[in-house]
């Protein structure tokens, strides 16, 4: 008998391990990538809508994250040239620009904002009361707009005074309080403005001190005042007291300030700051006006960021949000950042490789610009007045 064998079935060859599967493989890769992007985008959108206080409900140890948080973020660093207009012939339009910096305040903090604040050093999360006090957002905005208005007026006065144009005059000396045991007690009151001593006109603090230096303690003198509330001018007698700090007579008034009156400007200077508030652009506007009214390039044709308040004496005051302003100045490409001296260290932490220069006065700021190649020496008014 012949033995029959069962034939072995033929199997297909194994697929090549290196071969791609059939089908539209590139399209699948793109589909997956777009899906990831879509999911990430949706997640970011959801996180941006969820209030930050939700963290306190799901993450132990973060109960302090609530709706009282606000975020200070880098704002803008924009040229002041487009904001300042001088209505006079001969204005010198500079090539470089003074950049004034701002801070963006976000009062609606989301989970995404909170996450950003954890890894981005340029974003600072603060309690609302530490930033706004007891004011509402609207009240804070109105307050900042008023401070900006005053700051712009002071900037015009300081710049024109620096160029030798008198725009204010002192017309007497006011004071905030009267010493209980001093000669002026029950004779003078806050609201009185001293305009004469024994018939000698008093215009400011220096003239008052000069007039008192010739008085003999114990003798009777006459002080003429103009009351700002009643508009009454009256002359009072008092006995000069002894001042332990200097020779001459003593009145016994404290916190004295000159009364100042604005004179008509020889030409119009308008500053349009839009909806930006606060006093921190005072120095920047002062420098911009000087740049427009004088020959040469105050910044050396470069863009220089500037922040700091300015007072009538030309002193530069400190401002808030230096870290965020430094970041904004860097992002805008400023070659340097001029800040109040006491804020240099804070600004440098956010300035990357941008130089930060501390200034205390307008003259310090002009020296700083000179060190950057600016034309700041012997500034003369181009416009005839």
Molecular structure report:
This protein has 385 residues and is an alpha+beta fold. It has 3 domains: 25-67, no CATH class; 74-106 and 138-166 and 267-371, Ribosomal Protein S5, domain 2, CATH 3.30.230; 168-262, Pdz3 Domain (Roll). Helices cover 30% and strands 25% of the residues. The protein contains 10 helices and 18 strands. The protein has helices spanning 25-49, 55-58, 111-119, 128-132, 137-162, 205-212, 282-293, 322-331, 344-348, 362-371; strands spanning 69-79, 84-87, 97-106, 124-127, 168-178, 192-197, 200-201, 220-227, 233-239, 241-242, 249-250, 253-262, 268-271, 303-306, 309-310, 316-317, 337-340, 356-359. The strands form 5 sheets. It has a 6-stranded mixed β-sheet. Strands 5, 6, 7, 8, 9 and 12 form a 6-stranded antiparallel β-sheet that branches. A two-stranded antiparallel sheet has the order 2-13. Helix 5 runs parallel beside helix 7. The longest helix is centred in the middle third of the chain and has 26 residues, at 137-162. The N and C termini lie far apart (136 Å).
Short key terms for the protein model shown above:
single chain, 385 residues, alpha+beta, Ribosomal Protein S5, domain 2, Pdz3 Domain, 3 domains, six-stranded mixed sheet, six-stranded antiparallel sheet, 10 helices, 30% helix, elongated
């Amino acid at each position: 008998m012949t033995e029959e064998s069962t034939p072995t079935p033929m199997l297909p060859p194994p697929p090549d391990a290196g071969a791609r599967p059939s089908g539209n493989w590139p399209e699948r890769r793109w589909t997956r990538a777009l899906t990831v992007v879509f999911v990430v985008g949706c997640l970011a959108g959801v996180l941006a809508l969820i209030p930050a206080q939700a963290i306190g409900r799901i993450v132990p140890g973060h109960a302090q994250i609530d709706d009282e948080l606000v975020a200070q973020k880098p704002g803008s660093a924009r040229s002041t040239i487009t904001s300042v207009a001088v209505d006079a012939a001969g204005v010198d339009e500079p090539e470089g620009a003074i950049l004034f910096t701002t801070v963006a305040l976000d009062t609606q903090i989301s989970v995404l904002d909170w996450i950003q604040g954890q890894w981005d050093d340029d974003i600072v999360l603060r309690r609302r009361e530490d930033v706004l006090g007891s004011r509402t957002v609207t009240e804070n905005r109105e307050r900042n707009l008023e401070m900006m208005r005053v700051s712009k007026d002071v900037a015009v006065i300081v710049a024109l005074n620096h160029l030798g144009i008198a725009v204010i005059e002192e017309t007497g000396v006011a004071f905030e309080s009267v010493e209980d045991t001093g000669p002026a007690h029950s004779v003078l009151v806050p609201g009185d403005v001293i305009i004469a001593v024994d018939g000698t006109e008093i215009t400011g603090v220096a003239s008052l001190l000069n007039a008192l230096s010739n008085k003999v303690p114990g003798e009777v003198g006459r002080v003429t005042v103009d009351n700002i509330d009643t508009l009454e001018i009256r002359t009072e007698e008092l006995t000069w007291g002894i001042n332990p700090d200097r020779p001459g007579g003593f009145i016994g008034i404290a916190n004295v300030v000159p009364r100042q009156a604005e004179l008509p400007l020889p030409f119009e200077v308008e500053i349009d700051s839009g909806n930006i508030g606060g006093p921190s652009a005072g120095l920047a506007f002062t420098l911009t006006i000087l740049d427009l009214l004088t020959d040469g390039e105050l910044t050396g044709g470069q863009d220089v960021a500037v922040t700091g308040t300015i007072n009538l004496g030309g002193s530069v005051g400190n401002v808030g949000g230096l870290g965020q302003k430094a970041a904004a100045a860097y992002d805008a490409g400023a070659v340097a950042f001029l800040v109040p001296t006491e804020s240099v260290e804070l600004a440098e932490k956010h300035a990357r490789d941008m130089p930060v220069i501390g200034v205390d006065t307008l003259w310090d700021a002009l020296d700083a610009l000179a060190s950057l190649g600016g034309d700041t020496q012997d500034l003369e008014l181009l416009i005839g007045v």
